[in-house]
Structure to design on (428 residues):
């Protein structure tokens, strides 16, 4: 992975084949550090660092909590963690991420459980607003896609994707600096040859079938990252804005047409200071991209129902910066009529075992897709290539009341919508 990362991260002529990455990247000495980072110089005893507004290179971690983490940052232990953290007390996924950071020759890692004060609502609110920039400015994001809980970890042997009767095991030798299983200074492993691929969409898709694809927060972290090192169930994958590479050149299947899959954001959303004026077609494509993202996002879960809009706030901020349209509890004023025509995907909910329900506490206006749990779809997206949309109503007014005016893409306290339309007699 190191050669790929090096070629992608170089901002000079060395970045051959990574022109998109070069155009979108910010030099590391201009990337502001998050408030706190984990110093991984000694992976056996990492320590917390308060960055005081300095800049540099760091990694981020995207993972599934799946359980309570007893050893996380709190107001009581922050001073002790600055002195050092006993790595054996940390859950496996955090330890593995620290080890990966150290192995890549980098010093700093950001992980929410150790870099956000978990018993401080004030610190949580402040850091959540910065989440978009934290992942966007990271040199690389480690995605622990295969781990269902933080206790599982991700640095382990990957199982072969075919059954034992359909594969041939062969020894695989590669040079290493050090290791337990060595043969003449080389590490011994096992590779598997399979005669055919039965179902590429199930066995070889990168994130679609991984535990991390079930979590709402992880989708935003994935889309914000310019470079990702993805530990899937069957392989290790490097992904940037220019390329996708599996370890050893293993087969990669990407379902690029699937509207609910995780794909890259359009370049214009990743450019920090883009002032480009969009034409009608480009605007239309961006609005459709938003609907595609929402459809994928809606099938994911949040631990706290109130996080439904908060967990995609960074994505919404990127869209609003380019579209310059009012954001209304998950919809856009410019395409509000289209955004209102959403429906539940009951068939998908039955397969995914996700209930289509409304939360007990108020979360969003009833006309917003964010007011319900469960996968939804937009009629305008499903019919985007087969029909011309004709508006049958007019938006008289639409307003949303925010919980905090300082967070325009976060929680809402209320909303109102008035439409003007012709009455159509309903036949019984």
């Amino acid at each position: 992975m190191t050669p790929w990362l090096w070629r992608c991260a170089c901002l000079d002529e060395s970045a051959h084949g990574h022109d998109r990455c070069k155009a979108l990247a910010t030099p590391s000495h201009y990337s502001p550090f998050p408030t706190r980072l984990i110093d991984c110089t000694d992976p056996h005893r990492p320590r917390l660092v308060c960055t005081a507004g300095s800049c540099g290179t760091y990694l981020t971690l995207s993972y599934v909590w799946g359980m309570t983490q007893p050893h996380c940052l709190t107001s009581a232990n922050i001073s002790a963690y600055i002195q050092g953290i006993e790595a054996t007390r940390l859950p496996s996924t955090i330890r593995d991420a620290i080890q990966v950071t150290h192995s890549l020759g980098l010093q700093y890692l950001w992980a929410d459980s150790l870099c956000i004060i978990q018993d401080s609502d004030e610190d949580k609110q402040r850091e959540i607003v910065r989440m978009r920039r934290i992942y966007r400015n990271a040199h690389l994001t480690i995605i622990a896609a295969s781990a269902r809980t933080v206790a599982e970890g991700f640095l382990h042997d990957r199982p072969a994707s075919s059954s034992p009767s359909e594969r041939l095991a062969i020894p695989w030798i590669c040079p290493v600096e050090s290791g337990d299983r060595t043969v003449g200074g080389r590490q011994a492993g096992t590779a598997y040859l399979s005669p055919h691929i039965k179902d590429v969409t199930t066995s070889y898709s990168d994130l679609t079938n991984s535990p991390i694809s079930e979590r709402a927060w992880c989708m935003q972290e994935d889309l914000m990252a310019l470079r990702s090192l993805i530990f899937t169930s069957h392989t290790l994958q490097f992904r940037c804005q220019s390329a996708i590479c599996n370890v050893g050149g293993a087969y990669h299947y990407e379902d690029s047409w699937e509207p609910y899959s995780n794909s890259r954001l359009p370049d214009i959303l990743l450019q920090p200071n883009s002032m480009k004026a969009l034409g009608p077609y480009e605007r239309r494509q961006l609005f459709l991209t938003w609907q595609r993202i929402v459809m994928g996002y809606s099938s994911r879960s949040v631990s706290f129902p109130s996080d439904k809009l908060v967990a995609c706030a960074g994505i919404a901020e990127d869209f609003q910066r380019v579209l310059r349209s009012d954001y209304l509890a998950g919809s856009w004023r410019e395409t509000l009529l289209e955004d209102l025509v959403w429906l539940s995907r009951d068939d998908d909910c039955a397969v995914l075992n996700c209930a289509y329900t409304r939360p007990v506490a108020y979360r969003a206006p009833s006309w917003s897709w964010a007011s319900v749990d469960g996968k939804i779809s937009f009629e305008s997206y499903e019919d985007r290539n087969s029909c011309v949309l004709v508006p049958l109503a007019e938006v008289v007014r639409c307003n949303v009341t925010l919980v905090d005016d300082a967070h325009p893409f976060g929680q809402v306290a209320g909303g109102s919508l008035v439409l003007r339309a012709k009455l159509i007699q309903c036949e019984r």
